[in-house]
Amino acid sequence: MIKTAIKSADGMVMVFDDRGEQIPQYQGRYDEVKVSILRDAPPEARFGCFPDGELELKIVPREEW
């Protein structure tokens, strides 16, 4: 189950489950995995990104991710 999805500044996505383990089938280029992540992520999943190459993770609403 998806707990956290993070988009890096270069458009790569990392996805983690509730144990902090990566979920490989959801990882890759943002434009290639976005639809499946948003479809499969439960309502309580968290979404984050590193806007404009910043070093600090920004938590964003699902709709803005």
Summarize this, please?
This protein is of the alpha+beta class and 65 residues long. Helix content is 17%, strand content 28%.
Secondary-structure blueprint:
Blueprint: E1 4-7, E2 12-16, E3 28-29, H1 30-40, E4 46-49, E5 58-60
Parallel strand pairs: 1-4
Antiparallel strand pairs: 1-2, 2-3, 4-5
Biggest pleated sheet:
5 strands, mixed
What is the overall pLDDT average?
96
Query: How far is the N terminus from the C terminus?
Result: 18 Å
Low-confidence stretches: none
Sketch the topology as an H/E string, one letter per element.
Answer: EEEHEE
Class of secondary structure makeup: alpha+beta
Overall shape: globular
Number of alpha- plus pi-helical segments:
1
Number of strands: 5
Strand content: 25-35%
Helix content: 10-25%
Strands of the biggest beta sheet: in what spatial order?
3-2-1-4-5
Question: What does this molecule look like?
Answer:
This protein has 65 residues and is an alpha+beta fold. It has one helix at residues 30-40, and strands at residues 4-7, 12-16, 28-29, 46-49, 58-60. A 5-stranded mixed β-sheet has the order 3-2-1-4-5, covered by helices on one side. The chain is globular, with a radius of gyration of 11 Å. It starts with a strand and ends in a 5-residue tail after the last strand.
